[in-house]
Amino acid sequence: MSKERKTDLVKSVKEKGKTIEAEMSFFDHLAELRIHLVRSSIAVVILTSICFFYYDFLFDTIIMGPHKPTFWTYRMMCKVGEYFNMGPGFCITNIPGKIINTEMAGQFTLQINSALMTGLVLGFPYLLWEVWRFIKPALKDAEKKSASGFVLYASFLFIIGIMFGYFIVAPLSINFLSNYSISPDIENTITIDSYFSSVATLTLCTGAIFELPIVIYILSQLGIMTPTFMKEKRRYAVVLILIIAAIVTPTPDIPTMLTVSLPLFLLYEVSITVSGRVLKKKQKAEKEFFEN
């Protein structure tokens, strides 16, 4: 065998070895991802089962809460209206509209879907924890340190967003839509699916929107977003936030839109601060690198 053929054979063996090693590493990562997904699924199933078992409380107190005049938000509005002499119009004492079921398996399906939805919301911090455990080994020490509070901050923002959506956005929207009428001849009769999907959509969308600082942090780490860019585009952000508020709250009244927009404005300003801190850390690291 000639020397050239021996060299080619050695190269082929080495390349084949690298390919096999890469394939093994890829399948090892898939196996590890599968373990995290299984654990997450088990956690969601357990939480869903608990919600299904205690469904009377979940349905009567949580799901149907925004449709009752005794809901916390409506009671606080009455107290605020009385304190500032805002008149009886600010105090909500009745939510019109009869809620009905129009499908044979509608109530059973509602119980399963709402229990699963609640299980996913309650299990969200644990899902983030499993995601963090999966990506953590691939990060460098500096990256691990900078992202150490990812699960805590993301969970906190999501929970705050869920609470804001459930106690502010959902009841204000439900009150407006329930009282809205284009003709006295039309009576509002709402299906339970429509009511539940409205409450769930408003609540979950608000929770997702409150993750804005986390998204900005990731984009800033990747070098895609900078505080200078966000400050320059603030006027466009204001318009975009108003549009988002109009979409999230299907109510044309200005007070409701401003109530939803105000936290989004604050989140945008917080995101600018977050992006600025990321940029400062990067500049500091670059300066130390070139000095050494």
Automatic annotation (TrEMBL):
What superkingdom does the record give?
Answer: Bacteria
Report if keyword GTP-binding is assigned: no
The membrane topology of this protein is: Multi-pass membrane protein
Q: Subunit structure, per the record?
A: Forms a complex with TatA.
Give the family this protein belongs to, as stated in its UniProt record. Belongs to the TatC family.
Functionally, this protein is described as follows: Part of the twin-arginine translocation (Tat) system that transports large folded proteins containing a characteristic twin-arginine motif in their signal peptide across membranes.
* Name of the protein in question: Sec-independent protein translocase protein TatC
Lineage summary: Bacteria, Pseudomonadati, Bacteroidota, Sphingobacteriia, Sphingobacteriales
